[in-house]
Amino acid sequence: MSEDVTLSNISMDFGKFRAVDKVDITIKAGEFFSFLGPSGCGKTTILRLISGFMDPTQGKVLIGGKDMTGTRPNERPTALIFQNLALFPLMPIWENIAFGLEVRGVDKATRRAKAEELLKLVDLHESADKKVSQLSGGQKQRVAIARALAVEPKVMLLDEPLSALDLKLRQHMRAELRAIQKRTGVTFIYITHDQGEALAMSDRVGVMSQGVLQQVATPNEIYNQPSNGFVASFVGENNIFDGKIKSIKAGEATYDTSVGSFAAKIGPGVTKDTPVRLYVRPEHCTLTKAAAKSGNSIPVEVTESAFEGNFINVFLKDNAGQTHMAQVQNDPTAPPPQRGAKVQMNFDADHGVLLAHAKTRS
Amino acid sequence: MSELIRRYGSSLTWIIIAFTAFWLLVLVLIPNFVLFEFSFKPYLPVDQLGGPKDFYSLNNYWTFFNSPIHIRIFFQTVLYSSAVTLLCLILSYPLAYFLAKIVDAKTAPSIFLLLIIPLWVSEILRSFAWFIILAFNGPLNAMLQGIGLEPVRWISGFNAVIIGLIYSYLLFMLLPIYNAISSLDTNQIEASEDLGASLWRTHWRVVIPHSKPGIASGCVMVFMLCAGSVIVPSTLASPSSRWFTEIIQQWMFEGLDWNTGAAYAFLLLTLCIIFVSLVMRLLNVRLVDIAK
Amino acid sequence: MNSHRFGYYAIRFYVILFLAFMLLPLIVMGGAAFNDTRFPSIYPWFGFTTHWFQELWADNRMWGAARNTVFVAIAVVALSVPIGTAGAILLNSLQARSRSIIYGIMVAPILTPGAVIGISTLLFWYKFNVPAGLHLSVLGQVSYIAAYVMLLVLARLQSFDAGLEEAALDLGASHAQVMRRILLPHLYPAIFAGALIGFFQSAENFNVTLFTRGNSDTLTVYVGSKIRSGITPTINALAFLLIAATVIGVIIYEFRRRRADAMAKLAED
C-alpha cells in the first residue's frame, strides 16, 4: 500500500549553488510528512529528487529500501501533484484521471470505471466528461489528486498544491487532503511555505532553510520546542532579545541584554559560549501595571494595538527601542492598555528559550 | 465601428477604414476576382477585344484538362510538395522540441541565430548553393568518391528539387512548431512522465496535441511555398522534373497568353485553398490558430 | 539509464547534423567566390582570386538592381506599416463573426503563392491600363507584407489596456492625441519589428516581382536571370557579401545579447 522514503545524506548542486545540503531522513510508510520552509530553501528540489526529475549530486534516494538512482520518474512508485496541477487541458476529466492507466495498457472500459470510482472518492460525481476549463479551482485540485491516486502510487508528492486557492477553500482542502491520506494510507510528502498547512495536516514536519534541514519533529514539538532560532521565528511569532549568556545553572540560564537580565531555558545543544538569542512567544507575555513578583519583567510603552477578534495584538517598545508584541485575550470587561500607556511586559523563565542560530551550509 | 469612433473619433476612424479597405479591396479581393474573370476569357489580339469572340467560356481550363502532360506535372507538383512537407515535419519536430524544452534557455537563442542565417540570404541563393553542391563534378560527389563511393547524378528526376525545397523551407516548419511547443507548460510533460508514460506516449498524447496549431501552420506554409516555388525548380530541376509554376511562366512569358496563365494560376490557388482546408479539417484547428 | 544517455547524445548529434545541413551550403557557396574558375565550385580548387568581386563591382546592371531592391523595399515598408497597423486596429474593434471573416481575408495573402499574387496584381492594373513595372511589384508585395505587420501589431494590441485611452480622453486629450501619445507608443515595438521584417521580405521576394516587374530588375531577379543565362562566380561574390553581412549582424546581436544577460545578472547580485 505504501512505502517508506529514505533520503540518504543527499546534496544537490546547480553549478556553484548548493540547493540541498546533506539532507538525511527517513519518512515512514503511511506517514503525512511536510517539508516547510521559505521559497528558495530547497524543498522543491527535494521533491524533484524523490520524483526522479533529477538525481542528487551526492547521496541516494531510497523508496521501500530500493535505491532509485537512475530510475526515471515514469518507473518510480511515486505520483507528483504539481503546484499548477498540470492537468491536461485537451483531455476530458476522466481521461486525465485515467491517463496513468492508459499508459499501462488498461482497456477503456476499466479505465472509465476506475475514473468514475476515483471521482466519487474526491466528491466529483458526474464531472467525468467535462473539460478542465469548466472546473473551479477546488475541483481541479481534486481531479489532480484523483489522477495521482489512479496509478496507485506508494508515495504521493505534493508541491504546494493549495497555494492557488482562496483562504476558505484552502482550509477546507486541508481537512480533505488529510482525510484522503488516512483513507488511502499512501505516504504523503507535502511541500509548503505555509506553516498553518504544515502544522494542521502533518504527522511530522521538516523545517528547511538554505538547503539545510533544521529540525524534524511533530507539529507540536516544532511549535513548542523549536531546535534553533530559525525554526522558532519561521513557525509562529516570537519576541526576540539580543544578548549574551552570563551563566547556566541546572538547565536554566541567566541572559544579559541591554534592557535587563532574564532567566530562561536553554535550547538543544546550547552551552555558555554559543551565540544565542532569547525567544518568547507573544501569547506567553502578559501586561501588568506593576512589575510581577516572580519571573521576568521589563518596562515597555504601548505603541499600537490590533484587534483580531478573539484576541488582541498589543505592540510595545522597550527602553532600547526594540519592538515586541503581546497577545492578550479579548475580554470586554478588561480592555487592554491604550496607546502611550507605560506598562510592564512579563514572562516566565519556562517560556523564554535561548536558541542558537540556524544551521548553515557546511 | 461605433467602438472605433468612440475611441478614436470619426476622422481617424475613416482613415483606418480607408487604409484597410484599400488593402483588402484593391490589393487582395478585386485582383483575385479579376484573375478569376480573366481565366474564363479567350486570349485575343487587342483589336478583337469586345468583339464577337470575346465571351466567357471554360476553354482555358479545358486546355489544362486536355493536356495529359500538364495534368501529370500538376499531380507531380502536389505529390512532391506533400512529400517535402512531410519530410520537413519529421525533420523539424525533434529539433523544435529540443530547442523549446531540452536545451537550456541560454543556448537556444544562439542555436536559433545560427539556424536563421540562411533565412537572411535570399531564397534564390539558397537554391543556388545546392546547385553548386549537387553538380556532377561538385564537392558532394568529390567527397563520395573520396570515401570510395560512386558519384551520383543528383540533378536528375526530382532529387535535387526535393533537397532544395527542404533546405529552402525547413525553417518555415521549425519556427511555428517551436513556438507552439514553447507555450506548453513543462509541468504537463513531467506530469505525463510521472504518471508512467513513455517518451513516445508523452509526445503522442500531450506534446503533439498541444502543438497541433504550430504543425498545421508549418504544413500549410511549407506546402504553399513548395507548390508555388518558382526558384527552386528553375535552378535544380532536370528536364524530367518539371514544376507547375514553370507551366504558368510559359503561358505568361513565352505564350503571352495571360488568360490561360490566369486559369493555371487559379488552379494553383485552388490547390492551396484545398490543402489549407484539408489541414484544418484533419488537425481540427481554426484559421486563427494557423496564422500566427 | 543507458537508453536515456543514448537519447541525450542522439538528440545532440542530430542538432549538429541539422546545423551542418543549414550552414555548410552557405560556406560552399561563399567559398566558391574565391575559386579561380569560371564555373562556380569549391572543388576542384584552382587557386585563390578576388577577381569575381572586381567583376561584381564593375557590373552596372547589378548596381541598378540593388538600387531598385532598396527603393522597392522602402516603398513596401512605407505602405505596409500604416496599412497593416490600421488593419489590426480595425480588426481588434470588430466582434466575433465579422472579425473572423475579415481576419480570413487579411491573412489569405500570406497563404497564397507569390506567383498567384503577382499575376492577379498584373492583370488587375492591366485592366486600368497601368503597365507592369516595379510600382506593381510594390503593390503586390504590400498585399501580403501588410498581413505580417497586421499580425505583429494585433498580437501587441492584445496586451493593450483600453482603459488608458479612456483615462487620456478623460484628462481632456483629443482623439488624435490619444492615438499619437497613448496607442501608437504602445505599438511601436511591433511596428518597428513589422517594418524590419517587411524590408527583408521585400528584398528577398522573387515570385511576386517576377510577374509584375515589366523590364526592371531587382537583385533577386538579376540573380535569377544570371543563373539561367550563364553563371559566373560573381553571384558567389554577391552571396559571400550577403552572408558576411548577416554573420557580422548575428555576431553583433549575440555579443549584445550576452552583454545584456551579464548586465542583468550583475544587477541581480
**Total helix count of chain C?**
11
Name the CATH architecture of the domain at 60-232 in chain C.
Orthogonal Bundle
Amino- and carboxy-terminal Cα gap of chain C: 37 Å
Beta strand count of chain A: 20
Quaternary organisation: heterotrimer
Pair of chains with the largest interface and how many residues each contributes: B-C, 90 and 94 residues
Class by helix and strand content of chain C? Answer: mainly alpha
Please report the first level of CATH classification, the CATH class of the domain at 60-232 in chain C.
Mainly Alpha
**Strand and helix order of chain C:** HHHHHHHHHHH
Gross morphology of chain A is globular
CATH architecture of the largest domain in chain A: 3-Layer(aba) Sandwich
CATH topology of the domain at 60-232 in chain C: MetI-like fold
Which range does the strand content of chain A fall in? Answer: 35-45%
Percent helix range of chain C = over 70%
Helix percent band of chain A: 10-25%
Give a count of the beta strands of chain C, DSSP E runs of length 2 or more: 0
Could you please describe the fold and organization of this structure?
The complex is a heterotrimer of chains A (362), B (292) and C (269). Chain A is an alpha+beta fold and 362 residues long. Chain A has helices at residues 43-51, 93-102, 108-121, 137-150, 167-184, 195-201, 219-224, 229-234; strands spanning 5-14, 17-27, 32-36, 58-63, 66-67, 78-81, 155-159, 187-192, 204-209, 212-217, 239-249, 252-257, 260-266, 276-280, 286-288, 296-307, 311-318, 323-329, 342-347, 352-356. Chain A has two domains: 5-229, Rossmann fold, CATH 3.40.50; 238-356, OB fold (Dihydrolipoamide Acetyltransferase, E2P) (Beta Barrel), CATH 2.40.50. Chain A is built from eight helices and 20 strands. In chain A, strand 17 (311-318) and strand 18 (323-329) form a beta hairpin. The two termini of chain A are 37 Å apart. The mean pLDDT of chain A is 91. Chain B is an all-alpha fold and 292 residues long. The longest helix of chain B is centred in the N-terminal third of the chain and has 37 residues, at 2-38. The two termini of chain B are 24 Å apart. Chain C has a domain at 60-232: MetI-like fold (Orthogonal Bundle), CATH 1.10.3720. Chain C is built from eleven helices and no strands. Chain C starts with a helix and ends with a helix. Chains in contact: A-B, B-C. Chains B and C meet through helix 1, helix 3, helix 4, helix 5 and helix 6 of B and helix 1, helix 3, helix 4, helix 5 and helix 6 of C.
